[in-house]
Amino acid sequence: METIASDTLSLWREEGSRLIPQNFEAFRSLVAQARDFVQRGKYHAAAVYAEIAALYATEQHCGLFVSPELEQILLTIGRQTIPIDVTLNKNFSCNKAPRNILHVSTAVMGIGGHSRMLWRWIGQDTERSHSLVLTRQGLHEVPKFLKDAVNNSQGRIYVLDKSIGNLVSWAKRLREIAASADLVVLHIWSYDVMPTIAFASRDRSPPIIFVDYGDHCFWQGVSISDVVANLRESGMRLSHERRGIASDRTAILPIILNPIQRMLSRAEAKRQLGFAEDSIVLLSIARSLKYRTIDGVSFADAHVPLLEKYDRAILIVIGPVDPEEWSAAIQRSQGRIKVFGQREDTAVFYQAADIYVDSFPFVSITSLLEAGSYGTPLVSRYPYSHASKILSADAPGLTDKLILARNLPEYTTVLSRLVEDEEFRLSLGEATRQTITERHVGSHWQCYLEDVYCRATTVPGLTVTSLPTTDRMFVGEPDVFLQKVFSSRDIEIEEIIQSRLRLMPLKQRFYSWVELVKQHGFGRLNVLLPEWFYWHYYRRLQKWSISIKKQLCQYLPIQISKP
């Protein structure tokens, strides 16, 4: 792993250079199918294939961060299917600050940066009413903390896929809901096509802000967004250079954090977790996919040299689901690598940490910010060149204080100094806390938000000439590294199409099901169910049935099989 900055990166570059043209051609075939459906007036099927194309470009990097051709297809669908008499709030004036904000998200959950950003945004921006539209919530329950935030702001929550419909009819419903909003904020996932369809007629839509959570990957929505709110400088630079977004349509909006007050000293938090007060706790928190093993060296393996050198050091990692590859490292460290699954009660761990270590190879910026807010020094690995800055953990408040290590030996050296030098560790942690607070908390963050609102409501309207017109593949940095860093496996087009069968019109759904039967035999009848019925009735009935059978098994001396 000492050579990750040279030999390994060269191999990644070669592989990326080979895969990108293949992926690009596959993507173009999907776009062509979507365009063909549009030309035949089959807008429902066209919308589904547009989503399939967007999802493919997200999962299998195609040398694109935006597709003007795909966006044009979605704009055509919207203009052909949504009546132009659905217009914006007549009481709103661009000379006045917006009062009614409509947030649009694909789905929200109890964990994850999207949901926390949205929740804290609404909780901080108390002078406005905030409503929320969820386009594809599925079986996920809307977290109580988010329900409470919306209710407290006098807003409402709408779940589109609970009602009978499809991508086009749900997009029309979104447009109708937005008619009373002063401003729309998109917190959507990269493949979500509904907002682009819904707001295709820009002159008859409220101002739109796109929050760029996925700045490292392909997304669509450029053609409808008055302002793109970038969470960091590298994302804003990519917006200019690769998405073709003008500088007056981009702005920095840092990730918002709640004010953090330490309730426990480090020693007290360590005692609660069962560790000695004089132990040195290294902490990392991220989703499981962010801890991928690279060249046979796992995230745990990377810390073994440090743990062998300092017997008071402990590594706690929260997020991995089933880190079997870490067992050897755990044994070599005499069990001083502690692994926990995903959990929401992380405050005591943050307060126990002496040093925070970022996930690798996929950074976790929200976790870095939260750790730094407790006065903890931050360390991240970054073996790339400046051209791949989007792969780093840069963010307002982090750039000057975060320690970046170029390779594993340097990483171990940096951590060793932090372990040994308590004064340096504490002073760096406190400086990190101050810079994060000055940009990500309370009234400091509100100033950034007001600037974004102002830009969105005063910037000149988007025109056709404002945007690129054709898709252009790029093979270079950072593109050549994205497949290795962000994709855990290759995904075939057929697999993505199958995942979207329930969204298709019945005719296409049936034909696709017949092909599945030919390949795999019977047993997939539930793909014939439309998505709205599958998630909100069939799957709920399944869960209820399994629960009942589990309860019966406690009382009956027979084995009841699952459906």
UniProtKB/TrEMBL annotation:
Protein name in UniProt: Glycosyl transferase group 1
Keywords of the record: Transferase
GO molecular-function terms, A-Z: transferase activity
Annotated source species: Chroococcidiopsis thermalis (strain PCC 7203)
Gene3D superfamilies in alphabetical order: Glycogen Phosphorylase B
